[in-house]
């Protein structure tokens, strides 16, 4: 496990062009994946199997194929110390072997700009090979390992095939323009890096991502089976139940056929503002009928919400086609 600190770098600003973070290095039939500071491409048959705040495991139909861990570093980073820590963890899992190994030329080229060291391990059913990497630019460390089911082939030769090299070539742990990309399952969002993820939920019918920054918070929602959720009610009443207390921006838009409704609320008195940590909120829900999904965005804060900032965030939150 990579040891990390809770401290993170924060950047301000939000550019208007959303295409900057589109991947240019992944094959066209791969999937763009981004989660809490990291981005990479993956084959379509690799699905998200487990996810943590700074942890993700991908699997195919036979089992895990890729594991990533990452986080910020304080002080001096030591590859040697991390390799020793991984070796202890593998022994605790009754791993048969663990060895540091040189990184292949292909992987070195794929991870230009990172300080890297390689390793391999083997147990009774699977083998693994991977890298510990450190980025001197953003001071984040990471562990990326590929997992292989054992066959009758010579297991002393650990594969660094084209797929793993493509994944590593697409890996990024920071952006150049101060924005964070979140792209997984069927949602894609783009936020200023200053908004830090503090909570999330991925259930079968409901996704939630919660961020905060300097007296403001942003929550992103995605509801499945929208047609069933809207049975007997319109979008306005659905959103009103979710965002209690908010008033519609344009009441005339709150019809049964509406596909996007916005609300706002504020505490009018100084006393009510004093009692509430976030007395102002601005909310939006959108019904994506052809995908049977509802997307929701809520921003709350201690000061009145900037509508332009809110609508930029809402515009940058979408379903992946």
Structure notes:
The chain has 321 residues and is an alpha+beta fold. It contains seven helices and 19 strands. The chain has a seven-stranded antiparallel beta sheet with strand order 3-4-5-9-8-7-6, with helices on one face. Strand 8 and strand 9 form a beta hairpin.
Name the features:
7-stranded antiparallel β-sheet; 7 helices; alpha+beta; 321 residues; 19 strands; disordered N terminus; 40% strand
In whole angstroms, the N-to-C terminal distance is 34 Å
Could you give the order of the helices and strands?
EEEEEHEHEEEHEEEEEHHEEHEEHE
Beta percentage is: 35-45%
The helical percent reads: 10-25%
Total DSSP helices: 7
Shape: elongated
Q: Mean pLDDT, nearest integer?
A: 82
Largest sheet: 7 strands, antiparallel
- The counted number of beta strands is 19
Structural class: alpha+beta
């Amino acid at each position: 496990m990579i040891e990390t600190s809770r401290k993170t770098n924060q950047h301000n600003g939000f550019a208007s062009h959303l295409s900057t973070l589109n991947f240019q290095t992944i094959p066209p039939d791969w999937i763009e994946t981004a989660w809490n500071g990291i981005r990479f491409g993956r084959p379509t048959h690799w699905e998200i199997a487990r996810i943590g705040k700074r942890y993700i495991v991908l699997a195919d139909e036979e089992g895990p194929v890729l594991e990533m861990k990452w986080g910020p570093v304080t002080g001096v980073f030591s590859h040697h110390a991390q390799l020793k820590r991984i070796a202890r963890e593998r022994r605790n899992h009754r791993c048969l072997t663990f060895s540091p190994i040189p990184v292949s030329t292909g992987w070195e080229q794929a991870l230009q700009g990172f300080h890297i060291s390689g390793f391999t391990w083997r147990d009774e059913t699977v083998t693994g090979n991977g890298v510990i990497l450190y980025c001197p630019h953003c001071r984040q460390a990471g562990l990326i390992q590929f997992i292989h089911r054992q066959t009758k082939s010579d297991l002393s030769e650990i594969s660094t095939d084209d797929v793993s090299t493509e994944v590593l070539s697409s890996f990024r742990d920071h952006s150049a323009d101060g924005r964070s990309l979140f792209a997984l399952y069927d949602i894609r969002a783009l936020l200023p890096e200053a908004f830090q993820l503090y909570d999330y939920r991925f259930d079968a019918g409901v996704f939630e991502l919660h961020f905060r920054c300097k007296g403001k918070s942003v929550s992103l929602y995605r509801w499945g089976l929208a047609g069933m959720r809207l049975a007997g009610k319109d979008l306005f009443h659905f959103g009103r139940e979710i965002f209690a207390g908010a008033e519609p921006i344009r009441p005339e838009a709150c019809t049964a056929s509406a596909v996007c409704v916005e609300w706002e609320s504020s505490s009018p008195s100084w006393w009510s503002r004093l009692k509430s940590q976030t007395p102002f909120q601005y909310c939006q829900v959108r019904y994506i009928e052809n995908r049977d999904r509802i997307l929701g965005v809520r921003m709350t804060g201690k000061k009145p919400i900037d509508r332009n900032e809110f609508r930029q965030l809402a515009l940058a939150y979408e379903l992946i086609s």
